[in-house]
Design goal:
The complex is a heterodimer of chains A (262) and B (113). Helices cover 46% and strands 10% of the residues of chain A. Chain A contains 10 helices and 7 strands. The longest helix of chain A is centred in the C-terminal third of the chain and has 29 residues. The termini of chain A are far apart. By secondary structure, chain B is mainly α. Chain B has one domain. In chain B, helix 1 crosses helix 5. The chains are: A alpha+beta (262), B mainly alpha (113). The interface between A and B is medium-sized, with 35 and 31 residues.
Amino acid sequence: MEISGRVSKGSRMDQIYIPKNRSGLAIGSYVVIKPVIEPKFGDKPCLYNLQYLEPIKLEIIKRVMGLIDDYVENVIITGSFLNKGFNFGDLDVLLITNERVNGLNIENKLYSDLGIKTHLIIINSKSFVGGLESDPLFEMMLSRCVSKKRLILNPKRKIDYRLLDLHLLKSKALIDNFDVLSGDEKYYLTRNMIAIALFLQNKKIGVDIVDKKITRIFGLKSIGLIKKNTLNKSDFLSQYKKEYNNLFNKILGGIQNGAKQE
Amino acid sequence: MVQNRNKLIELFVGNIANAVLHKVLESAIQDEGLSDYYKKEQTTSRNIAITYREKINPVDANLPEKDVKYIREKVKKKVYAELMLRISKGYKGINLDLMDKYLEELLIETRII
């Protein structure tokens, strides 16, 4: 049996009145009192660059947002969960907060309530803005997302060549390991490289924009050819190496120029 | 695809070197606020290195001393060259001492030692 009541002020002690006509909770029985925290399912989240989202996913997102406490400044859902269909790994949740938050507790809470594995990224608002300004992958991650509160995504870009070097290094793996990588891995590494290139050219970054750029650069009929791992190895790899080396040289040049100016 | 042991070791070396280099450069950046985001996933190189390791015999035991010595030297040489290239261009904040630390960690993780 469950009864909700309101704490009222008393002269010596405060109390909670419950109806006399009830089944259960007999006089003398011990009870637990705990606050009612209603998940805010009613709040309408903001969708960015999402043409379609399955209603069930939207419900899940609302529940996630409702379950995360109020002291978090904003909650953003991103990643493969927002792709069409149900072929997602986990739920990427970005929490923006300046408070200390126990991420593991929140992950466990979300898992026990929704049965979905979440990956939490906890970040303070200063780093969030910094990431948007200087990190192409961060920008791409947020190019398609669902946010609890409205986002102002108009960053003034700051180029940090060391950060770009670090990101580009990941894409090197494709050159040496073409045969062992899956289609998804090849796609991820190529997308990473092209997002960095677009960032350096001060162009807009988004999943669709990057996909179009990939198909154009590599002369592909569709992006699905990479994901399905049905590429022509020699053609793709020679173009990839060219792009990678050009980009790497640009970044090294940027590091060198930066060092000279200091 | 059947690959001989030496070829697998070479592929392993290339990926471990890339993973070590990534970790050293990551430490040079030191952006505390974003560190969680960067550490979201292990680098592909590290994951591929593990895949190759699983094909190098002995799979269930550490590698013979001769192989360990070869891998260690080759990885160090590759990483050192990459780091020096960056330092020569004016890249600041690279701690060369971290190379050994991260290499040993990865060699243990991949059961090379």
